[in-house]
């Protein structure tokens, strides 16, 4: 975004040379003997990685007997070589791809969840605009639906007038989503589906989206921090990130995995991994460290008997979060490296509504 590609290439070449010439097999670092120059003694190279204001920035120090170098290794936009997709989870969803639009099947809870998550997204986005069209309140807004599956959330957002890009790493999911939207000429124009990961479209969609939706997704990614960084990069300043996920508690393990998967069969076995669940506190910490201000965190409860969701003050199971990207975020001045004297130091920078379903199916 700020010359990141060029600097990343420079950093990789530099570190490659350094590893090949300076690194020994000692666990605590390396020592390099100088055979020329004014310094006749051993020169100690002590690499240290320290976080900058945001976690994606790094500073690397190299100290000799006379001077200190400080290299700013600036971030690059994530590419396909860095992925948050867990290949082991793709197999699970590939086997279920043909069942996305069975409202009484394994994805019934996601169909029902639209009664909460669609108004949640709509109402919070409408707070950012002065006027909106009746019947098409999200008209003019661009929304990225990450992990869209068969399009269960993309379609109602499209019916509300939004231009939606739905992405999913499972190619069969995208085929199902494209086939289903083809029956509605209006949705066919408003929704675009792609079989890809989030990292693959970061560069082309950087700061172009009014909203990013990651509903029931973050508990399946392999690298949550990278995933949130990518979500932030595609958002416009002032854009909104919407997440629904599962808290990491003993109760979520007992009900979300043992009961739901192994006993009741509400969701297929192996759908979730408890270690990947994330607490609201940890999620908020990651969001804030990436320039996203958390606006709302609300608990969600599912009744398997009635098949409906409702809002709750209790976030120990499922919850929804809404965060907004800062509009005044300062970025560092691009530079390949900065030279400092030995004594100079770097300073830190500073409710289930029966009418909802009727509206969504119009």
TrEMBL record:
Its cofactor is Mg(2+). It is an enzyme of class 2 (transferase). Component of a multi-subunit COQ enzyme complex, composed of at least COQ3, COQ4, COQ5, COQ6, COQ7 and COQ9. GO terms for biological process: methylation. Coiled coil: none annotated. Residues 340-351 have a biased composition (Basic and acidic residues). Pathway: Cofactor biosynthesis; ubiquinone biosynthesis. It comes from Ursus americanus (American black bear). One of its GO terms (cellular component) is extrinsic component of mitochondrial inner membrane. This is Ubiquinone biosynthesis O-methyltransferase, mitochondrial. O-methyltransferase required for two non-consecutive steps during ubiquinone biosynthesis. Catalyzes the 2 O-methylation of 3,4-dihydroxy-5-(all-trans-decaprenyl)benzoic acid into 4-hydroxy-3-methoxy-5-(all-trans-decaprenyl)benzoic acid. Also catalyzes the last step of ubiquinone biosynthesis by mediating methylation of 3-demethylubiquinone into ubiquinone. Also able to mediate the methylation of 3-demethylubiquinol-10 into ubiquinol-10.
């Amino acid at each position: 975004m700020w010359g990141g590609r060029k600097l990343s290439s420079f950093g990789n070449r530099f570190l490659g040379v350094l590893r090949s010439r300076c690194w020994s097999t000692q666990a605590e670092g390396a020592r390099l003997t100088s055979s020329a120059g004014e310094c006749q003694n051993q020169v100690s190279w002590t690499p240290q990685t320290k976080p900058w204001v945001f976690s994606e920035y790094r500073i690397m120090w190299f100290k000799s007997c006379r001077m200190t170098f400080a290299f700013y290794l600036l971030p690059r936009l994530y590419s396909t070589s860095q992925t948050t997709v867990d290949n082991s989870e793709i197999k699970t969803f590939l086997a279920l791809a043909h069942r996305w639009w069975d409202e009484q099947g394994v994805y019934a809870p996601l169909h029902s969840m639209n009664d909460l998550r669609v108004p949640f997204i709509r109402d919070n986005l409408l707070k950012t605009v002065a006027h909106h069209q009746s019947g098409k309140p999200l008209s003019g807004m661009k929304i990225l639906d990450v992990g869209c599956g068969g399009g269960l959330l993309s379609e109602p957002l499209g019916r509300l007038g939004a231009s939606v890009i739905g992405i999913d790493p499972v190619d069969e999911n995208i085929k199902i989503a494209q086939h289903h939207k083809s029956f509605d000429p209006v949705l066919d124009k408003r929704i675009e589906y792609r079989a890809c990961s989030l990292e693959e479209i970061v560069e082309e969609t950087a700061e172009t989206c009014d909203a990013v939706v990651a509903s029931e997704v973050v508990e399946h990614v392999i690298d949550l921090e990278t995933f949130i960084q990518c979500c932030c990069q595609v958002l416009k300043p002032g854009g909104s990130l919407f997440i629904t996920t599962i808290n990491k508690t003993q109760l979520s393990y007992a009900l979300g995995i043992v009961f739901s998967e192994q006993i009741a069969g509400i969701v297929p076995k192996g759908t979730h991994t408890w270690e990947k669940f994330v607490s609201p506190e940890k999620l908020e910490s990651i969001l804030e460290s990436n320039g996203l201000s958390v606006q709302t965190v609300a608990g969600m409860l599912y009744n398997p008997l009635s098949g409906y969701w409702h809002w709750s003050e209790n976030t120990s199971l499922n919850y929804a979060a809404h965060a907004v990207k800062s509009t005044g975020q300062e970025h560092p001045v691009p530079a390949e490296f900065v030279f400092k004297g030995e004594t100079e130091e770097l300073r830190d920078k500073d409710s289930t509504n029966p009418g909802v379903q009727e509206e969504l199916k119009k």
